[in-house]
Amino acid sequence: MEINPQPVVQVSSQLQHELCAGQANGKIQINISGGSGNYLSYLNQQTANSQSGSNVIFSNLSAGTHTLSVQDLSCNAHLQTFIYTILPGTMIPIPQIGILPEYCEGETIVLQAQVASGYNVLWHCPNPYFQAIGNPVTIQAINALSSGTFQVKTIDSNGCASAPVLFQLNIHAKPQIDSVIIVCDTLSLIANVQIQSTSSNGHLWYSLDGVQFQSQPNFLRFRLVCILFMYEMVNLFVWIHCPYK
After folding, report:
1. Please, what is the Cα angle at 169 between 137 and 120, to 5 degrees?
2. In angstroms, rounded to a whole number, what is the distance separating the alpha carbons of residues 132 and 93?
């Protein structure tokens, strides 16, 4: 009976740690030399996923401890094990976003989140499709169909992202002015103005100058309006405010 000495096998390794937390994209690359030159390697005792050869790469590894086994096939009883640790990737803090107000179509919407210094923000909505990077981001409420469930993530310069934060953006049909009624008392030269309007939802606000708004559609005791009306020179401008402001 001939008893051969155990093969002497050398293993050099190179690790690639997880880039972003939870991505499981770590890697162990090994180079084997010495012995018979006929090797079999497997990771975490999973012999079904073994690889042969002197240059072996195990990919898609999660963060944590991994056991690498290397066998020189000239001596099946001889098995060398090596312990490697894949470090976890960058953990990105989630963004903070306040309660967004309701919007009417045609308005400008500013999306802004609170994130730690050095990070950016990714905004996304699958339907209707929208995606933008920035903080803040300005979008146009085109119509009521622009409503949707949005998600926002914090991202870093490597492309790592936080868990998504979901929020609902509601855009309603623009309110309409149906009629403006001016009732003028020719004796006192005092006019009352009544605005009739419709809105799909919410309570409207009204103004005759576009600056000062009130909740009631009636404007009472306007002397100048009545004088202009009598001389057929009335050119009355009326504003209605989105009911969600």
Report:
1. 30
2. 19
Nearest-5° Cα angle at 175, 182 to 139: 140
Backbone dihedral angles phi then psi of residue 49, each to the nearest 5 degrees: -105, 35
List the one residue out of 119, 112, 116 whose CA is nearest residue 150: 112
Question: Are the C-beta atoms of residues 44 and 81 closer than 8 Å to each other?
Answer: no
Please report which helix (H) or strand (E) contains residue 9, including its range. Answer: strand 9-16
Amino acid identity for residue 132 in this structure: A
* pLDDT by position in tens, the chain (length 245): 556 667 788 999 999 999 999 889 999 999 999 888 899 999 998 888 889 999 999 999 999 999 999 998 887 777 889 999 999 998 999 999 887 777 877 788 889 999 999 999 999 998 888 899 999 998 876 666 677 899 999 999 988 999 999 998 888 777 777 887 877 776 777 778 888 877 766 667 777 777 777 778 887 776 655 555 444 444 445 555 555 54
CA distances from 112 to 57, 162, 211 (A): 43, 16, 26
Adjacent-strand bridge partners of 42: 69
This prediction has a pTM of 0.61
Query: What's at 100, amino acid-wise?
Result: L
Structure tokens at 136: 């803040």
How many residues does the structure list for the chain?
245
Do 63 and 26 meet the contact criterion of CB atoms below 8 Å apart?
A: yes
